[in-house]
Structure formats: C-alpha cells, structure tokens
Amino acid sequence: MSTRRGLWTAWVLPPLTVLIVLLFWEAVTRAGVVSPLQFPRMSDTLVALWHEFGSSRLWGAVGATLLGWAIGMAITVVLGVAVGTALAVNPFALRSAAPVIEIFKAIPAIAILPLVILVAGATLPMKVFLICFAAFWPFVIQVIYGVQSMDQVVLDTSRALGVRGIRRFLSVSIPSASPYLVTGMRIASAQALILAVVAEIVGGAEGIGRNILLAENSGTSAYPTMYAYILVAGLLGIVLTGAFFLMERRLMHWHESQRNIRASNRAVGA
Amino acid sequence: MSRLTTSAVRVSRPSSAIRLKGIGRVLTPLWLPVLLLVAWWALSARSTSPFFPPLPDILVETWNQWVVFGAWTNAVSSVQNLLIGYVAGVLIGVIGGSLLWRLRLLRTATNPIIYFLYVLPAPALLPAMIAIFGIGDMRKIALIALGAIWPTLLNTLDGMRGIDAVKFDTARALRLGGWRRYFSLVLPGAAPQIAAGMRASLTVGIILVVVSEMVASNSGIGYFILQAQAEFAIKKMWTGILVLAILGTVLNYLFMFAERLVLRWYYRSRALHGA
To answer: Which residue of B has its CA nearest to A105?
Structure first.
C-alpha cells in the first residue's frame, strides 16, 4: 500500500466515520424513527453540550469527578506499590495473602456502596473509599507481577554493587516493574472512573454521574442535557485512558517489553 | 502479556521459593482468610455500633431473609439478567472483534467510536437506558450487554492480531482457508486473550447488574440492599452485601475454572515452556 493511501485512511477515515454516525443520529431522530421522548436529536444534544460548556455546572461536576478519581488513584498507587512489593519479595507472605487478594478482588465494590453511604454520606470520602476498594486489588496484582518479573541478572548486579534497601527499591525494583505498574494504573484508572460515576448516580455524590441522573429525572426536555453529560463522561474517559497510553509509550519506550507492544498497538489503541 | 486486562495472583515461583512441605503447603494459603474471619467474628461479637452488627447475627439473619422469607428470588432475578446480558455482550464482542480483525478499513474507520464506547464509564448510560427501554428487565439486560461488549471485543481483536505470521504461512501451506482457518487457527490462537477480555467483561457486568437494580427497580440483589438501607434495616442490608459478595466470588471462580478447563492445552504448553 502506498504511503499516501495509508495516510488517507489513518487521518481521514476515522473523523469521517464520527461525522457519518452523528449525521445518522440526526437523520434517524429527525425522520421520527426514534421517538424524541427516548432519544434526543444530535443537534439538540450538541447545543446542550455547548450550553453546558459555558456554565459552571459542568465544570463543577467534572472537577468533582476528577478530584475523587485523583485522590483515589493516588492512595491506590502508593498503597499498592508498598503492599505489592512487600508481598512479591516474600514467598510466605505472598502465599498467605494471595487468596485474600483474590477474594477481595472478586467482591464487587458496589456491594459495599450502601454501607459506605450510610457511614460516610454522599461525600467525597465515600467516593474515594469506593474507588480505592475497586482499584486497589487489580493494581496490587500487577505490582506483584512486575516485581516478580525482574531480571535475575539485574538483581544479581545490583547485589554485587551493594545497592540495597530503599535505594534498591527506588532505582532497581520500581524501574524494572514500571511497565506492569503503568498497565496496572491504566486498569485501575478505568475502574476508578466507573466507580466514581456509580458513587455519583447511586450515592448522590457531586459529579458527572449525578448530573446525568438529575437531567434524566427532570423530564424529556432535559434529555439533550443528559446525553451531553454522557458525552462528557466519555470524553473524560478518553482523556484519562489516553493519558496512560501516552505514558506507557513515552515513559516506557526504553523498556524492552514495549518494543513489541508498540508495533501491535497502532490501530486499535486498546 | 502485560496487556491482558485482568489477571490472577501468580503464586508459584520456579526458583528461590521456599519449598514448603506437606501440611505447611496446604495451610499457608488458608491461615490468613481464616484469621480474618475469626477476627471479624471476635471484634463484632459485642459490637453496639448500628453499622457493624455482630457476624453471628448477620449469618442468622441471612438464613432468615434469603431462605425463610424468600428473598432468594432477588438473587435469581439478578443472575438471570446478568447471564442473558453477559452472553449477548460477549457474543457480540467476539463476532465484532473477528469482523474488525478481518476488515482492516472498517477497523480504522470505527476506531474512534469503539474507543469512545470502551472508555465511557458504562454506568453513565443507565439513565439513557431507562429513557429508551423503560424500567423493566430489558434496560438492565441492554445495559449489561452494552458494557460487556467492549473489553471482549478489543481483546478478541488484539489476540487475533497477535497471532504469529508463521502460523498463517503454515495454514496456507496446508491449504487451510476460510472458516476452517478461522476455527482451527485464529479462534484458538486468540483464545487466551479472548478469555482475559471475557473476564474483564464479567467484572463490568456484575457492576452493571447491581447498578441497574439500585436505580428505579423493584427486584434484584441491588434493589434488596438499597431498600434495606433506606429502611435503616442494617442487618438486612448486611445480608444482601454478604450474598452479593459470595455471588460475585463464586461467579469469578466458576469463570476461572471454566477457563482452565477450556484452555487446558494453552496452560499445559505454557508450563512446558517454563513461562
């Protein structure tokens, strides 16, 4: 295939599809195939989105969702790296803790949502706790994988050079495990965002999820606003997940595990 | 392998691991869960906090609520919706992923749409599903299916694209073509990653079934838990949490068991290569 055609498909086709889908949406709702009581018009939704972009309501909600996500992620990463590393270097501790991690990972975080709402109310701590509970277990497993995958030669070299303790942790363990850490963070981030939205829809905490439900509850005239917020939730997902993809590529380009991944990653970005 | 979306804790280490013998080998993975249960039992035994009733009371109440008073119908409704939605979502995911693998232009074209739907936090779609399908079971199933499609679809596509080119050359030499190539090379080759995607879909599905029951619903475990919370019947709420936790754990272990069974050849060959 010639490069020109490759460029054309890579840069023109995707935006074109988005345009076609948007036009199809408009056509279907305009022709009355789908009742406006169920699905608003694309143009109305984009107008609502534009309107919301100019209001403090949207930015307040985005800020609240992001704040919960960020605090939850920070706690998850710090705790996860500490616990995961400690477990990975001690076979007895790992064998003991593995079933507990498996069981807690299998418990859906949403199960404890009503309890957390009772104890903490519709607040930021409630959201953060749920996010941590959902994101911690899959992340800690990736940390364990990462530390275990360390090259024996690297370990021996660092031992021969007398690097140990906290220095070994920071300059050997963390860099070697970093591809797993970043992958773990991407998985944790997706979980965190889902749970943030759940905490807002079911728990009533401030954020995008609550605004979606509020718009749904205030009748069909607010449906364009509801879909506008759903679009915002998706855009937020794109920004956050995209940020971790870039990190995986930019930060980790030196790591050997990335060399093959990059080649297979190009088209889907999954 | 770092791109698999979920994974289980890998315990055995070929070298350096302490070889625990006999009883120790069996007991090591057991003592911590047992200790935690005993600690819960002991610490909650004389609890007067309204939020954390004693564990024995919760267990008795669980028997009463779920067996005697017949709340098990809620669990049946949840599992039923979950299974229908999940199977539909996974089927669409595998078929869609295969189509995208086969049709390169379609893959490039739909990339932004699929990516958008993949990263969109699925619970955000619940109000839209209520608006479209009303408040019956249909919108629960639709939401679960819609959330379950994307992890499976992307992992299917990824797994198929990751198959060694040499294998396709071999297939060509053996004159394997069309559907036979698909079923005897492409699908098995991508199976480990499809399974990883299906596991991620199951996690999303469990969240979605409960979320859909917690908003504008009158059946299911999620409804039961939230109803108990609204009545401030804390013990009753705990029984729902317990049932949901057990259900989630059992479903996950069932999945892992089925995965081991179906992918037996894969795990065996990986063990042979010492990976």
So the answer is: B249
From chain B, the residues in CB contact with A91 under 8 A are 13, 16-18
Residue B196 sits in a domain whose CATH number is 1.10.3720.10
* Structure-token match 């089927």, residue found: B91
3-state secondary structure of A108: coil
Q: Is residue B21 part of a domain?
A: no
Contacts of B246 (CB under 8 A, 6+ apart): none
- Report pTM: 0.84
Residue B140 falls inside a structural domain:
yes
Query: Six-digit token pair at B155?
Result: 């992992």
Q: Which among A152, A187, A268 has CB closest to B5?
A: A187
Give the integer Cα–Cα distance in Å for B260 and A145. Answer: 20
Query: Is 50 exceeded by the pLDDT of residue A263?
Result: no
B160 touches chain A (CB under 8 A): no
Q: What are the residue boundaries of the structural domains of chain A, listed by start?
A: 44-269
Cβ of B121 within 8 Å of Cβ of A237? The answer is yes
- Residues of B numbered 5-24 whose beta carbons fall under 8 angstroms of chain A's beta carbons: which are they? 5-11, 13, 15-18, 20
Q: Which residue has the higher pLDDT, B46 or B191?
A: B191
Q: Domain A44-269 adopts which CATH fold?
A: MetI-like fold (1.10.3720)
Most confidently modeled of A3-12, A71-80, B188-197? Answer: A71-80
Position B215 in a domain: yes
Q: CB B116 to CB A229 under 8 A? A: no
Tens digit of each residue's pLDDT (9 = 90 or more) over B58-95: 888 888 888 888 888 899 999 999 999 999 999 999 99
Q: How far is A149 from chain B (nearest CA, A)?
A: 10
Domain residues for the domain of B92 are 75-231
Q: What is the pLDDT of residue A256?
A: 55
Helices (H), chain A: 3-11, 13-30, 42-53, 56-88, 91-106, 113-120, 124-148, 152-160, 165-168, 174-201, 208-217, 223-250, 256-265
How far apart, in whole angstroms, are the C-alpha atoms of residue A100 and residue B32? 7
Q: Is residue B154 part of a domain?
A: yes
Of B33, B114, B248, the CB nearest to A100: B33
The alpha-carbon gap from B144 to the nearest alpha carbon of chain A, in Å, equals: 14
Name the minimum distance, in Å, from the CA of A35 to any CA of chain B.
9
The residue among B35, B58, B126, B215 with the most chain A CBs within 10 A of its CB, best to mutate, is: B126
What's the domain count of chain B?
Answer: 1
What is the predicted pLDDT for the residue at A255?
A: 63
Chain A environment of B16 (Cβ under 8 Å): 91
Enter the DSSP assignment of B10: P
Place B3 in a pLDDT band, splitting at 50, 70 and 90: very low
**Complex ipTM tops 0.90:** no
Residue B210 to residue A96, Cβ atoms within 8 A: no
Pairwise CA distance, residues B103 & B192, whole Å: 22
